[in-house]
Amino acid sequence: MVGVRFVRRVDGLTYEFVRDGEVHGFPSYKRVDLDIWCRRLPDFGWVVCNEVAEVSSRPFGDAGWGDLPPEGVWVSYKGDRSYVYDLVRSDVQAAAGLESR
Fold first, then answer.
1. CA 81/CA 3 separation, integer angstroms
2. Minimal CA–CA distance to 72: which of 84, 56, 88, 55?
3. Contact 69, 48 (CB under 8 A)
4. What's the pLDDT tens digit per position in 7-25?
5. Domain layout of the chain by residue ranges
6. DSSP letter assigned to residue 24
7. Cα(28)–Cα(31) distance, rounded to whole angstroms?
């Protein structure tokens, strides 16, 4: 898998993440426009976080303990805002270099 894509349900805004090494023995994905990461944290599961592991998003129903971030519903929170996203694994799109909107 080359990357993941988060699609915000309310307006379709899309964030692309591309594979960028490994952390804690699992793939790490970096957002193409910021230093934001999709990673599996020890004892916490898959999340979206910054470089110092401050979590801003995670899967809604299951923390995701597999080798790859779980597809489906994720929720984010920052300050007083919260959004619902769908995570989609992206092999062809990320490899083609598509940018986020």
1. 26
2. 88
3. no
4. 999 999 999 999 999 999 9
5. 3-95
6. T
7. 10
